[in-house]
Structure formats: structure tokens, C-alpha cells
Amino acid sequence: MTLFEELQRRGLLAQLTDEKEIKELINAGKATFYIGFDPTADSLHVGHFMALCLMKRLQMAGNKPIVLLGGGTGMIGDPSGKTDMRKMLTREDIEHNVECFKKQMSRFIDFSDGKALAVNNADWLLDLNYVDVLREVGPCFSVNKMLTFECYKQRMERGLTFLEFNYMIMQSYDFYRLFQDYGCNMQFGGDDQWANMLGGTELIRKKLGKDAYAMTITLLLNSEGKKMGKTEKGAVWLDPEKTSPYEFYQYWRNVNDADVIKCLKMLTFVPIQEIEEMEQHMEGAQFNKAKELLAYELTKLVHGEEEANKADAAAKAVFSGGNSADMPTTRLTREDVPEGGIGILTLLVKCGLAASNGEGRRLVQQGGISINDTKVTDPQTMLRPEGELIIRKGKKVFHKVVMED
Fold first, then answer.
1. How far apart are CA 343 and CA 371, in angstroms?
2. What are the tens digits of pLDDT across the range 144-169?
3. Which of 49, 113, 148, 393 counts the highest number of beta carbons within 10 A?
4. From the candidates 18, 42, 191, 192, which is the catalytic residue?
């Protein structure tokens, strides 16, 4: 089975500019390809995860990855798939985030001996002369054509700023520079990047008279059509300080039955034949086994085998009625708990089990919250924690509260 065939069977391929050429390049290990990452936070998250896994797969087959860190584009913001303009970051914030990204990416990509490169588009974008851009790049883009792309049409009603309108030109210029400076002949990205990627291939063709290729990968959506990687507390981060290995494990352990096989195919390195065999016999307890495999494999990939083993053991200890030091924990002091106690809704929000008091109230009223295996049904319940208590949300989410002296 070739690499291209495996990507197809795993459901990763979305849109391709030139299927025959892309297939030949990646199967022969001759693609020098890039994926861009705008450093909008100080950690990568699950939204970046599939791109990193794709880079790893391609590198294992002999292809050369280029990680493009968006120190320049990150100062503008990409409107693709968004309805609001991205928050502006300072140059210092962006530089800090870039360094954080580099460290995390080394878990997935082998940068030794020139096997991969990490470059920052701030190195060329921030020094560009505006008039030169207008003269050299501007004539290669049609405004009429740009406005036909969905990513811009979605924003037209609310107002698309000239700042954001330039993002396609900047990303296209990235591909142009990478093609010239590093021999990069291919760009990969999420399916919402298709318009920007086509802009790059067109710019290279018009300016250099040469061919470059683009391929998008399927967005990771759940069975309801929503992007995966969000919880009540926000994004699922790859940084263990933001999302602990146990919480990361639990996120994947708790995916819907309808999503588990898709996630195994798209995100793990479990042999595709093994996953397809599992798919033929998915019923009852098999779903739980598949979810445990998914959670373990992804936690091992992001946090290492030791943390994956600890998270797996902690989850099994909790489900069997025990306790574990690796369970997500919130520590309270006497200042957090008034004399009359702390309200259950306040505690749920403090622990990140509910985004608001209103959401906490609904959870309690619907019978979704237990304290030390006792169901709480009154939203007015006041608690006076002593030592430790275990909050269970639904059937699968556990959280420890520790009262400190």
C-alpha cells in the first residue's frame, strides 16, 4: 500500500490541485512540503494536531517537511472559516508563541540533520516594501476572483477589512518565497485554507512559470459537524500545563461512538488494516475498547508513553470506584469557602466543569452531577469540603477537589 492510498483510506484527503503529480511525489518521498501555523497562543492545540500527524506520516515516507511559523501573518489574522476578526497580538507575544510552538513540534517532527526545517515568515514579510508588493504581486491577483471564495463571502455582510483582505496575498507570497528559497514544491493545510493555497500556486505559476501543488486535509469534525477539540474550559491544548495528560486522555476517551473510528483513522498510527477490522465489529463493549485505544495512542503521541500509562491507569482506577493522584484536581483554600460553604454552582465553574452558573444549574437539575457518588439535585446546595471530594459529571468525567489547610 502506498502512502497516498493510506491517506485515502484514512479519510484524510479533501481537495488536490494535481492528483497524479502529488501522488507520484509523496509516494517517492520527493515532496518538500510546508504547513503554516500562526502563533496565536503559547501552545498548540487539537486543531493543529492532524496537521502535525500528517507531517509525521509524510516525513516517515522520506518527504521533507517545512514548518512555517507565522510571525508575520500572525500580526494580521486569517479570516478563513471565521466570522470575527482575530485579536491583534504584539510582536513580543508572537515571538514568545513561536518559541513555544517550536518546542512542542519537535515531539512530532525530526529536525535533525536537515530532515525538516522550521522557518518564520516574519523574516521576509516584515521587511517588505508596500509599493514593491503592489507592483510585483498585486497584478497577479483578481479581486473579483478572491471575492468568490467562501472564506471572504462569509465576512462580506459584517464587513471585511482591507487588513484581512491581504491575508491571501501574504500566504501566497509565503509559498512563492519557500518555493524559491527552499525548493518547496507543495503546500498542505486544512480544507478551509483552499483559497489561500490556490493563490500560492497561481502566484508561482505567474511569476516563475513553474508548477507547485496544493492539497487540503479533511477538517476534524464530530458527528454533529462541529470542530473537535473544545470543552467547557476551552481548547484542548497540547501543553500539559494547560490541559493535563489525564484531561487530554479523558477528552478522547469520551468522544461519541460515531466519531471513534474516524479519529483512529485520521489521528493515530494504528495500522489502517487493524482499524478497518475493528470497524467491522463495532458494537457494545467494542466502542469502549476503541475509545481506550484512541485515548492511549494520542496521549502517548503527545505526552509520551509514561504519561499515557499513568492516564490510562488513573482512568481505570476512577471507573472501578477507586481514586487517583493523576485525576484533574482543584485546590481550595479557606478564603475560597465562606463560613456558609461554597455553592455547588460556584464549585462547578471553579473546577471548569461548567462554563457558567446557568450551565451548572442545568447539569444539576438534569441529574448530571454527583459528589462522592451521591447525586446532587438542588442547585442551591452548599458544600463544606473537608479533605478531598470527588465530583462526577455525567458518567465519565471525574474531578477531585482538595481542601487545603
1. 13
2. 777 777 666 666 667 677 777 778 88
3. 49
4. 192
